[in-house]
């Protein structure tokens, strides 16, 4: 292969979501030539991996992509799916990135003489720098036990769920109670479906407390500007499950206990399928108590902030459980339960096998400091807690992109002067 004939770019960005396009915005502002490669279409996940009633769980005023802040008439509301897509389409139009869609990056590897060789389904390119903006949610997780379930039971991952009507008539088992699991369980519950929910260890938080959205209180308290190095868990916070809450219908708490009181059946974490029976951990009571403890702990921190700063606000309160499990049911007969479908809401695993660079830890996760790795020229952006809570969200991904581009610009200047 004659590498002299390969297209060369100072920067190749892998991924055309909000992280990749935020990076493109700042590269263009610096006058740095670059190319964005996207496997599907820009913002693909937002249009194809969200259910019909999906909405943001963060208020609209936190939508602040580079040069494209929220400008609607409901800053304290929560954009619905079609509004999110319109907002992102506007961002793409504003950035006007040099993007090639429908192009899969097969491999990125070191190039003789420096830089990187980028092999794609549409040809070969080379780059001095590669920014990995493909996120960390690549492969839907479905446990191997799913292979042993009866073929008559429909099974989908949360990324495939759209609405209750796509599932066969009958009860639905939702596995997992993170943001997706809790919201999908609510969606099915509100649609009148019988729901069984296998509850995990996800925490929860209030939507509103003492007269304001909890997000607004936490912003005032500086939580969203806290770098990962200052968080009590340090890098361990990147493995945390997000708190479940919703922006649906103007925003409200998600209270699994309330759902249970209304007829949803709650179990502990799903452990196995054996002899026609679903087998669960006996951790339901502990999981609910832990979620409520986090809920009340966040509110208590807000109470302290209010008292410390003499903020005028409605009086404090403490959540008291509206339902308690009578017992810890360890098994459920699949046939007699009437379960006709299962929605797996247990997340995704990353897949960076295409990146040939020594930038990963023993668990296969990228090692970096605010997206900058120890390997010159390799960067990550858009990962949860890359730098702050908002690194994987519309609110702060632009600041991370600006930081990475500044690093690229400084490196380019240094090498050109050498």
Automatic annotation (TrEMBL):
The keyword Oxidoreductase applies. Keywords: Oxidoreductase. The keyword Oxidoreductase applies. It holds the Pfam family Pyr_redox_3. InterPro entries: Auxin_biosynth/cation_transpt, CHP04046_FMN-dependent, FAD/NAD-bd_sf. Its EC number is 1.-.-.-. It is an enzyme of class 1 (oxidoreductase). Transmembrane segments: none annotated. GO terms for molecular function: flavin adenine dinucleotide binding; monooxygenase activity. SUPFAM superfamilies: FAD/NAD(P)-binding domain. It comes from the Bacteria. This is Putative oxidoreductase CzcO. It comes from Starkeya nomas. The lineage of its organism: Bacteria, Pseudomonadati, Pseudomonadota, Alphaproteobacteria, Hyphomicrobiales. The gene is czcO.
């Amino acid at each position: 292969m004659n590498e002299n004939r390969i297209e060369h770019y100072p920067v190749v960005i892998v991924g055309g979501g909000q992280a990749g396009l935020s990076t493109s915005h700042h590269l263009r502002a610096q006058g740095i030539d670059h190319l964005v490669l996207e496997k599907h279409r820009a913002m693909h996940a937002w249009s194809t991996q969200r259910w019909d009633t999906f909405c943001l769980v963060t208020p609209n005023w936190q939508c602040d992509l580079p040069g494209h802040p929220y400008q609607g008439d409901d800053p304290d509301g929560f954009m619905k799916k079609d509004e999110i897509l319109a907002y992102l389409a506007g961002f793409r139009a504003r950035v006007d990135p040099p993007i090639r869609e429908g192009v899969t990056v097969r491999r990125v590897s070191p190039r003789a003489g420096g830089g990187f060789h980028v092999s794609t389904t549409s040809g070969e390119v080379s780059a001095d720098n590669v920014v990995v903006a493909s996120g960390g949610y690549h492969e839907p997780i479905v446990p191997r036990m799913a292979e042993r379930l009866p073929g008559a039971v429909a099974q989908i991952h949360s990324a495939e769920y759209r609405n209750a009507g796509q599932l066969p008539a009958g009860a639905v088992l939702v596995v997992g109670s993170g943001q997706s699991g809790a919201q999908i369980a609510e969606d099915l519950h509100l649609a009148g479906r019988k729901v069984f929910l296998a509850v995990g260890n996800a925490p929860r938080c209030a939507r509103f407390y003492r007269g304001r959205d909890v997000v607004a209180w936490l912003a005032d308290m500086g939580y969203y500007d806290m770098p990962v190095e200052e968080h009590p868990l340090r890098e361990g916070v990147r493995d945390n499950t997000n708190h479940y809450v919703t922006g649906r219908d103007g925003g409200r708490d998600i209270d699994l206990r309330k759902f249970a009181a209304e007829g949803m059946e709650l179990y502990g974490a799903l452990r196995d399928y054996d002899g026609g029976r679903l087998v669960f951990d006996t951790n339901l009571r502990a999981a609910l108590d832990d979620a409520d403890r986090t809920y009340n702990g966040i509110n208590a921190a807000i109470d302290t902030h209010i008292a410390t700063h003499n903020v005028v606000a409605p009086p404090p309160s403490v959540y008291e459980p509206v339902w308690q499990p009578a017992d810890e049911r360890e098994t459920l007969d699949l046939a007699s339960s009437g379960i006709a479908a299962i929605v797996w809401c247990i997340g995704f695993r990353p897949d960076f096998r295409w990146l040939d660079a020594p930038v990963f830890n023993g668990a296969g996760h990228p090692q970096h400091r605010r997206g900058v790795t120890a390997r010159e020229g390799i960067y990550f952006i858009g990962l949860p807690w890359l730098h702050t809570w908002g690194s994987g969200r519309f609110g702060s991904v632009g600041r991370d992109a600006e930081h990475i581009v500044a690093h690229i610009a400084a490196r380019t200047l240094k090498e050109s002067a050498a």
